[in-house]
Amino acid sequence: MACIGHRDGTASVSCSTCASPGCPECLEQVDNSFYCTNCLLQRLQEAEFEAYEAETTTLVRDSRLEAKRRVRRNWILTAIASVVIVPAVAGVVIEDDSFPSALKFVAGPIAGILAAYVLWAALWGIPAAWRWWKGLFAGTSALIVSSEFGWLLLAVSFFFIPIYFGYLYGVFGGAIYEYRKNLKIAAGLLLPDPA
After folding, report:
1. pTM score over 0.85
2. Residue 192 burial (C-beta neighbours within 10 Å; 0-12, 13-18, 19+)
3. Integer angstrom CA distances of residue 138 from 76, 92, 104, 121, 169
4. How many CA atoms lie within 13 A of 109 on its CB side?
């Protein structure tokens, strides 16, 4: 039988996938099996796809676990801090003499609930603003740290500005968005953002 690569050669082996006849010089040997060029290329593409699929599955699984942890952690931190903050804020409102006494017992609990919400919103908003801010400065580190002004800008921008933006983002609706997004990721209804 004639070799597929050499017209004048004889085939001593055949492709393990499509059974095309060939010689050991024309067919590639992989794991004691011979493959023609087309079948080898197809096998490599399948292996790359399987590796990509495994990596994607791992990424999604890890993102789901992190989203579940983030939701649980933020609720626990909010509950722990609220044990101290809510009574303190309610106490300040109740003890304030300039506040009308008839409204103190309504305003105290409302102030406590608002304080708990502000804390919860900060726990969701600040990390989201921090990730955005960090991405904004990606690739500019050599420019920033090359002067004294750059160090000052670095200190201010990487600590104070993201905290303020994150706080405002969280309080004015960003916390609810981040919370719902993490619930959807944890439930597998939403793919995580690419890192």
Report:
1. no
2. middle
3. 32, 44, 49, 26, 21
4. 3
CA atoms within 13 A on the CB side of 2: 5
Question: Tens place of pLDDT for every residue, the chain, 195 residues?
Answer: 677 777 777 778 888 888 888 887 778 888 888 888 888 888 889 889 999 999 888 988 999 999 999 999 999 999 999 999 888 988 888 888 887 888 888 888 888 899 999 999 999 999 999 888 777 777 665 555 566 666 676 667 677 888 889 999 999 999 999 999 999 999 988 887 765
Residues 92, 98, 103, 105: what is their CA dihedral angle, to the nearest 10 degrees?
Answer: 30
Per-domain residue ranges for the chain? 61-187
Number of Cβ within 10 Å of residue 23's Cβ equals 17
The two three-digit tokens of residue 123, written as one number: 């726990």
> At which residue do the structure tokens 């722990």 appear?
80
DSSP states of 2-38 as a string? B-SS-SSSB--EE-TTT--EE-TTTSEEETTEEE-HH
